[in-house]
Each structure stands twice: as C-alpha cells, then as structure tokens.
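Protein modeling request. Please complete all fields; requests missing the sequence field cannot be processed.
Requester role: graduate student
Desired output: 3D structure, token encoding
Chains: 1
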Amino acid sequence: MRLHVPGEEISHLQPWVEAAGVVKGRSANEHGSSAKTRDDLEDSTARKEITIRAPGSGRFVKELYYHSGVPRWQVNCQIFVGDYAIECLFEPGNQVPEAEARRQFDLLIPNREVKAGDVLGALIIAPGNEYSIFHWGVCNTKTGLTECPLLYATPLVRDALLAIIQRDLPGTQICFDQYF
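Delivered output (180 residues):
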C-alpha cells in the first residue's frame, strides 16, 4: 500500500524496532519544541542494544554529526525517497565522544539502497550513558519542513507507537496539528 504525498509517493512506514526494546517514548513537545518547527516523533530511548530496521525504502545515507547544543557526537542517517527523507538519528547516549560515535557509525550498513524492514544496524549505548536515543521523522528535502511520521505509518505501527507514547507520557499530544 502506498500513500500519495504531493509530488511523491512514499511507502507506509514499517516497524523500525520491536516495541519491547523501547524503554520510553518521547515527543518533540516534551522538550518544549515549537509546533511550527517540530512536527515529528521526537525519540525513543533504550537501555540495551537494539536492532534498528529501515522504516521505509529508499537511498540510505549516514554521516557523523557533532550536536554542539548537547554537546555530543551522533550518527545522522536519512533514507531518501524523491523529495522526502526519513530521518533516523542514532544517538548512543547524552554524552558521546567522537570515538563512540564512530563505533556507532561503523555498526551501521554502508550507504546504499534499502527496502522497508532491512536491518540498518544496532543502536548502541556508549560507555558512561544509561540509555541510547533513536530519533526519527519525515522531512521535505526541498522545504526543510518536517511532517508527522505517523501520517506515513501503517495502522499497526501507528497504533504501537501511540501506545508507547501514551504508556510513558499519558495525555501527550503527538504531531501537533494532527489528531490521533
């Protein structure tokens, strides 16, 4: 089944991880993000190494990234589908030195075409951190605007993610302008 997006078609997002591996789901507004600029499912945390699968099909690209606002090193990945990108950020903790981010980078597949459900690699926890973070969203690469990934998820995936968020953050609004 495919969902039509203006000018593009994106497959419904598939499960990216087993729900049992997620310790806590978090939404962008938990961090006080602006509804005008953040319309994604912020992140999920895990307290053990978990396997991450491609939530959609397209061209997978990874890069090391230094997040100066935290500060920490992480691996930012995107799966490009026409004018859209599924963003997958692998954050192996809150305080991650470059060497540990490089280890995370090396544990992920090389840049290449992927299909929904392909294993991308393991999300690790860097030494000295209690948990890792997986952040994902859908971004229009021409405008830079994010869209709610739940709009692209299969009903099974959408319901599972909503259940995790409501389990961990009862009453939290997800994807600001949408009602789920």
